[in-house]
């Protein structure tokens, strides 16, 4: 019995007690065997639970790692979305600034032509009618600008509605020259239109193209000293199916920062045209 108890104490739970007499020693042997079996089962349960705990710990580590990776990915996505929002806000603010600037020119034209009509009641009927047409044209331009300005969804999505149509470039340029003559005359600035070909048609958004060129012309007048000249010219570039429009003044010129902003705005306009063309195709 002592040897059997010693083996059980060492962890040998398969120990056999070779004593079958039905007496107190036999009962003791049976108790030792029962205790050995229970200890064996308990240790097996402990080992099983230990393995389960180790497996759970490994799975937990994997889940934590996966969750951490998901959180990092989500954080990166949030940062990208935040940067996109900042870009859209910047684009919207720039668009609002451009729209506000664009509204000044037709407003100035309307004000100038209206003053002429009010100050000169003896104005010939034909000239009065021309001024009224100019006022109507400037009003229509303002309406188009405000319409785009109020299209909040288009602004926030970085999209502006563009209507591509075949338009006479001469008509656009003449309209710009006519609307800026009053501003130029106040500074004794002469606008010269220099063209080799007059009958050139372009596929553009008329209003946006008019705004772009009008901005250049009005700025050329604004920043030119009194008594200087402003030159507008355009020519057909048959090689790459495009048209070049030039606005030249005798003022200080663009700063490097102004050039950068202008090229960025021009690039954005070109991208919008490409997107619109893709949708139409």
Description:
With 281 residues, this protein is mainly α. The protein is 70% helix and 11% strand. The chain has helices at 2-9, 24-119, 125-150, 152-156, 169-186, 206-223, 256-280, and strands at residues 165-168, 190-195, 201-204, 229-237, 242-248. Strands 2-4-5 form a 3-stranded mixed sheet, with helices on one face. A hairpin with a 4-residue loop joins β4 (229-237) and β5. The longest helix is centred in the N-terminal third of the chain and has 96 residues, at 24-119. The protein is rod-shaped and about 145 Å long.
Helix content: 55-70%
Gap between N and C termini, in Å?
Answer: 98 Å
Structural class, by secondary structure, is: mainly alpha
Give the rounded overall mean pLDDT: 79
Count of alpha/pi helices: 7
Q: Which strand-content bin applies to the residues? A: 5-15%
Q: Which sequence of SSEs, written as H and E, runs from N to C?
A: HHHHEHEEHEEH
Give the strand line-up of the largest sheet: 2-4-5
State the low-pLDDT regions, or none: none
Note the overall shape. Answer: rod-shaped
Topology diagram in text:
Layout: H1 2-9, H2 24-119, H3 125-150, H4 152-156, E1 165-168, H5 169-186, E2 190-195, E3 201-204, H6 206-223, E4 229-237, E5 242-248, H7 256-280
Helix pairs in contact: 2-3, 2-5, 5-6
């Amino acid at each position: 019995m002592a040897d059997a108890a010693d083996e059980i104490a060492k962890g040998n739970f398969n120990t056999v007690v070779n004593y079958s007499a039905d007496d107190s020693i036999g009962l003791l042997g049976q108790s030792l065997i029962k205790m050995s079996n229970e200890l064996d089962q308990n240790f097996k349960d402990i080992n099983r639970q230990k393995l389960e705990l180790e497996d759970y710990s490994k799975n937990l580590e994997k889940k934590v790692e996966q969750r951490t990776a998901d959180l990092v990915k989500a954080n990166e996505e949030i940062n990208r979305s935040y940067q996109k929002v900042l870009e859209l806000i910047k684009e919207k603010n720039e668009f609002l600034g451009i729209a506000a600037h664009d509204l000044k020119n037709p407003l100035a034209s309307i004000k100038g032509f209206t003053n002429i009509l009010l100050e000169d009641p003896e104005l010939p009927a034909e000239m009065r009618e021309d001024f009224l047409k100019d006022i109507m044209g400037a009003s229509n331009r303002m309406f188009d600008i405000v319409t785009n300005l109020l299209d909040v969804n288009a602004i926030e999505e970085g999209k502006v509605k563009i209507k591509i149509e075949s338009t006479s470039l001469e008509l656009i340029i003449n309209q710009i020259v006519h609307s800026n003559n009053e501003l130029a005359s106040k500074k004794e600035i002469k606008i010269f239109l220099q063209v080799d070909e007059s009958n050139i048609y372009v596929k553009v958004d008329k209003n946006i193209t008019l705004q772009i060129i009008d901005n250049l012309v009005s700025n050329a007048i604004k920043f030119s000293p009194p008594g200087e000249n402003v030159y507008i010219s355009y020519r057909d570039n048959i090689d790459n199916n495009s048209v070049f429009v030039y606005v030249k003044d005798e003022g200080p010129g663009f700063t490097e920062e102004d050039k950068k902003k202008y090229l960025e705005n021009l690039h954005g306009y070109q991208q919008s045209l490409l997107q619109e063309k893709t949708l139409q195709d």
